[in-house]
Design a protein that fits this description.
2 copies of one chain form a homodimer. With 335 residues, the first copy, chain A, is α/β, with parallel strands linked by helices. Chain A has helices at residues 19-31, 43-50, 75-81, 86-96, 108-119, 154-170, 193-203, 231-256, 260-278, 306-321, 324-334, and strands at 5-10, 35-41, 60-64, 101-104, 133-135, 140-144, 178-183, 209-215, 226-228, 288-290, 296-299. In chain A, helix 1 packs across helix 10 (306-321), helix 4 (86-96) packs parallel to helix 5 (108-119) and helix 6 (154-170) packs across helix 11 (324-334).
Chain lengths: 335, 335
């Protein structure tokens, strides 16, 4: 029998809370035998949501939390003051070991700060990066770091590359994942100071399969599995990816509605187009893990639906089953 | 009568040289009375290209250059050694004043280095940024800096904002252009060290219309006219813009070819779609100017067609007619 896995889900986090987090929890426990979920948040509201669904009642419990951290709040203050919030309660469960992982669609800043301050880093991890999967022509790539630590140093980027490789190999099942560093040209001498200093560290590291620099233009091709950069650049890549994608798709839709001819055409291409665009959506793989903590914290999009929450819970299970944190500790011991 | 304007065009630069640069030159002199073009490169080849077209022979001349700088060459070395290349000859013409501006689709690195080393900066300009126009839902925005100077300082970014504003106002005709700085959140306290130090400089500068931070996700909306960032980030934005756009469009096209139904639909939506996607293409506005030089250097895409070359030549004319360099000097004198 597989080990039981407990995932705390912040039922009040995100634009669609509590409806979608609750539904996502139900979907996840129905999908996998060994998953248990603890929903944190306003108990009464959560219980009335849960009543809509059929599931094994032993596998979902509720922990009452009266406060909610809003998106606009200064993160450090929010984490400190709102002890009885759905997020802080979930973070504390991971810290104390009553949950293996947590999933939240709430305030990014609070999740990042809370992960580091409350859950804490694995000893030896300099900075825990946020590592979302981004869609590509061929599947997904891991973008690491993407918002947790600005003004990073070369040694941080080296750790990101190693932890990202472990994640892609054991959670995503990519054999010997290819690692590249984001650069403004492919030649070795190109780059800013940080990239120039990091490049030789990556090149000589025996633990990773470093393939060199990658220009932003080539990221969507999906030829590389782990894309290393510092958080400011990663954040720009992640957000622009979403922004350009959303703008182009809305312009294509709008363009199709300009004449009767194109409207008829639009009806005919719709199913095929929907399928194509679905393949350029990484949310089915789950959220962005904050890697290198004593436990696992997964941040999903603010507008997450049950599908992304459920996928994130399954991702947590895989993370634990594959012993990712043990592998990270082993990697650090070998350094 | 309007003043005569002389633009040197590197006829050997880019993937489509000399065919497209030559055709672009012909289109430009046919489009505007006061433009004269000097094509630099292998005279015999250029002359045989020119024979294909009808134009006022007095308005295009050829300057023979026997060498070509290739894309892969180390830029500094190439500029230094290949004195008889089409690019260096054009750069020297701007330096000596026999041309007002130059347009090249050749090696980006060589154009950037050559602009700074041969043409030289306006006195007081700390760093001349590369400032391409990027397409948005509403038109175009100027992205500055985009590849000329990595590891920039706050004072550089302030100058980029000022020079970018002058360009957008007087070349693109945008009244009181809105300026924003690329950031990882919209709150004033967000950002890396560079952004945090630059923000107050922009906020208190009386010469620009600063509207605050912009997240990469919102760039494609086109709510801002001048987007300020350091070159590494700008390069990532520019390249990713192109990469995500190209990947999505090719996936949409491919998606439409998956069934008979969608193929018929594709035929019907094609004209409308083509029009929409054309509006998301900045090349009709010209290339990326390197701003702050004693003259003007415009870098176009490596795969430029005559349309982009011709638009760039007209852009050079507008740049001179509007006295952009005089306005930059005036701005520097007021500092």
């Amino acid at each position: 029998m597989e080990d039981k896995i407990v995932v705390a889900v912040d039922a009040m986090g995100g634009d669609n809370a509590p409806v979608e987090p609750v539904k996502g929890a139900v979907d996840a426990v129905n999908a996998k035998e060994n998953i248990n979920v603890v929903l944190t948040g306003k108990e009464e509201i959560i219980r009335s949501e849960l009543e809509k669904y059929t599931y094994n009642k032993e596998k979902i419990s509720v922990k009452n939390a009266t406060e909610i951290i809003e998106t606009g709040e200064p993160p450090v203050m929010a984490i400190k003051k709102k002890k009885d919030s759905s997020l802080v309660m979930a973070l504390n469960m991971v810290k104390e070991g009553s949950a293996d992982a947590l999933v939240s669609a709430g305030s990014s800043g609070a999740i990042l700060v809370g992960g580091q301050v409350i859950v804490g880093r694995i000893k030896g991890v300099e900075r825990p990066p946020l590592a979302p999967l981004i869609p590509t022509r061929k599947g997904v790539s891991l973008l690491v770091d993407c918002g947790a630590n600005v003004d990073a140093r070369p040694s941080h980027l080296l750790q990101f590359a190693k932890m990202g490789s472990i994640y892609m190999e054991h959670v995503m099942g990519v054999k010997n994942p290819k690692v590249a560093i984001v650069n403004i040209g492919v030649e070795e001498e190109k780059g800013n100071q940080l990239v120039k200093e990091t490049y030789p560290l990556l090149k000589t590291c025996p633990d990773i399969n470093f393939v060199g620099s990658i220009e932003a233009r080539d990221i969507p091709n999906g030829d590389v599995d782990v894309i290393v950069c510092e958080a400011f650049v990663g954040n720009v890549i992640l957000k622009l990816y979403e922004g350009v994608g959303a703008t182009l798709i809305s312009m294509v839709k709008q363009g199709m509605m300009t004449s009767l001819r194109s409207k008829i055409g639009a009806l005919l291409v719709k199913p095929a187009l929907k399928k194509t665009l679905k393949s350029f959506d990484a949310s089915e793989y789950g959220g962005a893990p904050l890697i290198g903590l004593n436990g696992l914290v997964v941040k999903t999009h603010g507008n997450s639906t049950a599908k992304e929450i459920s996928a994130s819970i399954l991702q947590c299970a895989l993370f634990k089953e594959q012993g990712i944190n043990e592998k990270i500790k082993e990697m650090l011991n070998n350094d």
